Amino acid sequence: MKIRAVIFDFDGVINDSASQKRGGKRIVRIVEHSGYKIPKGIYKTLKSNWGLDGKKLVEVCFGLDSETARKIYREWERVDATDFFPLIPGAKSVLEKLKSAGLRVFMLTSRNRENLMVVLDHFALTKMFDLIWTKGDGPFTKPDPRAFDLAFDELLRLRIPRDECLYIGDTPLDFRCTSMAGIECVSTLTGSFGKPDFLKAGQKKENIIGSITDLPKWIEKYRA
After folding, report:
1. Does residue 102 sit in the same domain as residue 199?
2. Closest CA to 31 of 67, 82, 71, 84
3. pLDDT of residue 17
């Protein structure tokens, strides 16, 4: 069936913020500057848990209590909204191309709305999306598959079945989450994970693309 709607993750798919060289180093630096010890093998631990809600990621990977992790995550978001990571090359052009082709373009992310909107406005991306769902818009956050409930309500209103929608993510957790939610996922390699990571998680080889710039060709080849 043809694709009529695409739901994007933000970090690692549109914004070049999810690689260990960028996002990983930033959170390690923030935790260190906040006076906390960095556990051994932290980058391996971060990669294993990348895709969790940001506060939970800090809590799990650095062994911090919930309130401390929340404060660290707030600082992480503050830095992200003042020292902007670049967009994935070609991301804006792909969004424009999908919109001009008549597809519905959405975003579902674990970022807080206030932080996200600052970044989207900075890159003049806000109007690219028909709807945006962020942390706090519903009771569930990725990787809980129920995070997609609000998106599915909108698809139902638009009379777009799930099999005419794609989610674009950059982590194996995104793939597992969407599989449980009953929506097809295309995985990009612009985050912290390589092709072997996605294949090990069960992702189909043809559903792994280099970056968002490969998405229009993927749609044309597999779902036109």
Report:
1. yes
2. 71
3. 93
